[in-house]
Amino acid sequence: MSRKKRKKKNKKKTRRPSSQQNLPPKNKKESPPPQEKQKKKRFPFILIVLSIFLLGAAAFFVFRSQKPQIQVKKDSSLNVLLITLDTTRSDRLGCYGYSKAETTNLDSLSENGVRFENAYCQVPLTTPSHCSILTGTYPLYHKVRNNGQYYLSPEILTVAEVLKNKGLKTAAFVSSFTVDSRFGLDQGFDVYDDKFAQAQAFKPLNSERRAEQVYSSFAQWMEKNSDDQFFCWVHFFDPHIPYAPPSPYRENFSDRPYDGEIAYMDEYVGKIIDKLRGNNLMDKTIIIAAGDHGEALGEKGERGHGVFLYEPTMRVPLIFYAPKHLPEGETIHTRVRLIDLMPSILDMLEISAPEEIQGKSLLPIIQNPPKNHLNTYIESYFPLENFGWHPLIGLIDGDWKYIKAPQEELYNLDQDPQEQKNLLHERKKIHLEKKKKLEQMIEEFSSSLDNKRKSLSSQEMQRLRSLGYIGGSATSSQGELPDPKEKVDELQLIQRALQFELEQNYKESASIYKQLISMSPDGPTHYVNLALMQAQMKEFDKAIQTLEQGLAEIPDSEVLLHRLGHTYLVTGKTKQALDTFLQLLKLNPQNFDALLVSAWILNSSGEKQEAQKHFQKALEIEPENKFARKNYAICLATSGRLKEAIKIFNDLKKKYPKDHEIYQALGIAYGSLGDLSKSIQNLEEAIQIRPTPTAYFNLAVAMKKNSDLEGAAHYLRLYLKNTKGENEQKILQARYELQNIEKKLKK
Predict the structure, then answer these.
(1) pLDDT of residue 463
(2) What is the Cα–Cα distance from 682 to 660, expressed in whole angstroms?
(3) Which listed residue, of 139, 250, 276, 485, carries a Cα 20 to 30 Å from 618's Cα?
(4) Predicted local distance difference test score (pLDDT) of residue 448
């Protein structure tokens, strides 16, 4: 029941005192004359009416001023389910007043829980925003400023780590490359399900999973863990560019595909709720649904998010739901922040918040909403790191939003929620006050953490572009950086080129990138994007020429060198590829992709020792990278360092128990070491998961060595049934071995 409804209910129940109870006491000693008596009769009557009115009014104001107490019941035994709604504007949900929305499940959580009317992200980008959610700190502190270019430092404590240390099971099910485990967001999670294509060195270009796939993984985990107290994070990425909801949402929202993506996502929010209900967990769980950032749909020249700090990308939905622990149908108008989620979760479970947390628990605000808003620092370094434009930082304080840029901005959000009128010059006192406060916040909340910045490879840039993130590398601009507001025309051209690319109209996209190169010849991104379009059209020679043109203009560009190296690699020019990647490593010895690809090429060409050095350096940067670990182990095994290789393979087997390639490689390694029993065991397990010619052949070899001729003959026959892609020499060898074994079996 909403607070407003409760007020009306309490008002109706208020009983006015009866007139008999309010009569003045009779005075028997005096007996006035008849005329006086008549006046006195009228006077008491007026007093009675006046008394009734005053008492009724007093009761009314008492009940208005004494709002019904909202109960917040903390409980250390609660489960926690955090659902993050990527790229979701608050004004596109029904519970936030959008009449066209089909968000029944989120609306139900709101109707029966607590909805925060004014919740804000701290940065309009997925990776840094989730870092703020999971650590309760500003990007000033955790130092993750952009998608795909930073690692969350292990020195930073996450809510998952705190809860795991308290004995909770922790699991995450995520749906986008932007929150891949390689960036450090998996800290503290027992299970971190980011399976897009783990056996590959670089995850596929469209590194996104639909809500149904994320839900399926969550549901399987829940079935096995519903009896244990847990903290679970589910991340839905669907409302992201390109907007392409599946049927029937595609048809039902043909004119509003962004709304269709949100409606589709809402369906799986409902399925998660049903799964909790089916396991009798609804009364034992606090559910938090939060947008990580919003989405611009053309406002102020932006489509997507990341460049500007305006309301469409900064204001997000936020709903708390916990039956019997939080009020129902409550709306909180106080401004809150995503950094407040971690301290709120810990407070609800009666756990003390670590000192470094910069957010505040929202439970006291739910209990007794204050008149004053919480202020928040906001930023985006996306313009700087992707385009070489000036970064944007700002402050939302009271009714005011201040944005620091070459052309500063000041808006009154209460009077001008569309941010149409910049009041910077009209309200100079407010401007100076907010500017000073922003400087104080930067000083107060910044950390001395030296966080590693990850070099964005062209592969990773391409993955981010496939998810709608334009650009990918800063230009080499000198002097004063341009204000992003001055670059709206260029931004819109880039957005058009990306849209053509997503529609697979590579010719039109390439034409725009040529135009952009003429506008900004010192921008490496435009050369890379043009080369990508040319590669899509199979014009690889043109792509190489474009990249060489870019390098002539910007010789020390990492992203151009990486793209050129990769283009050489896919066209079979491995020597040129290796030379290019080694040149890149001279510029940046920490470039992960250059290390990994160089290691792979060196290993393939027989330079095992050099390959191992590069694998080791790559694994120092990304120790959990599956492709790097697996290929390093293969390199060790083929160098005779079998025991070291077997240790790595066994570690991988524990983490990826359904990967047949690991069992296969482990079986071969044990066979080379002479441990035939373990060799046969692992190769048989590989075949049970997925039978392959390689596993059949090697299992036959191991069985022959183990004197099991019938077994060897059986697997050689299976091998010879399907030799597609196999080496002709190997096939001839298998036939020869089978003939010899069959002769021996006949004797």
Answers:
(1) 55
(2) 9
(3) 139
(4) 86
**DSSP letter (8 states) at residue 453:** B
Q: Which residues pair with 473 in a beta bridge?
A: none
User: What single-letter DSSP state applies at residue 157?
Assistant: P
Burial 105-117 (b: 16+ CB within 10 A, else e): bbbbbbbbbbbbb
Asked if 208 contacts 237 with a C-beta cutoff of 8 angstroms, the reply is yes
Calpha distance 747→744 (Å, rounded): 5
Question: In this structure, are residues 392 and 483 in contact, taking their beta carbons and an 8 Å threshold?
Answer: no
Tens of pLDDT, residue by residue over 702-717, are 999 999 999 999 999 9
- Residue range 589-617, pLDDT digits in tens: 988 889 999 999 999 999 999 999 999 99
The CATH fold of domain 473-588: 1.25.40
Element housing 581 (H / E): helix 574-587
pLDDT digits (tens, 9 = 90+) for 73-120: 999 999 999 999 999 999 999 999 999 999 999 999 999 999 999 999
Amino acid sitting at position 534? Q
Q: What is the pTM of this model?
A: 0.77
Nearest 5°: phi and psi at 192? Answer: -130, 95
CATH architecture of 84-372: 3-Layer(aba) Sandwich (3.40)
Please list the residue range(s) of the chain that carry CATH number 3.40.720.10. 84-372
The confidence score (pLDDT) of residue 624 equals 80
Question: Where do the CATH 1.25.40.10 domains begin and end in the chain?
Answer: 473-588, 640-747
Contacts for 215 with CB less than 8 Å, ≥ 6 apart: 234, 268, 271, 272
> Can you tell me the distance from the alpha carbon of 491 to that of 302, in angstroms, rounded to the nearest whole number?
8
Amino acid letter at 256?
R
Residues 6+ apart with CB under 8 A from 384: 390, 391, 474, 481
The pLDDT of residue 378: 98
Cα 159 to Cα 170: distance, rounded to the nearest angstrom: 10
Q: How far is the first Cα of the chain from the last one, in angstroms, to the nearest whole number?
A: 88
Rounded alpha-carbon distances, angstroms, from residue 444 to 141, 191, 356, 393, 720:
10, 35, 12, 15, 70
Residues 6+ apart with CB under 8 A from 244: 250, 257, 261
Q: Give the number of other Cβ atoms within 10 Å of residue 245's Cβ.
A: 25
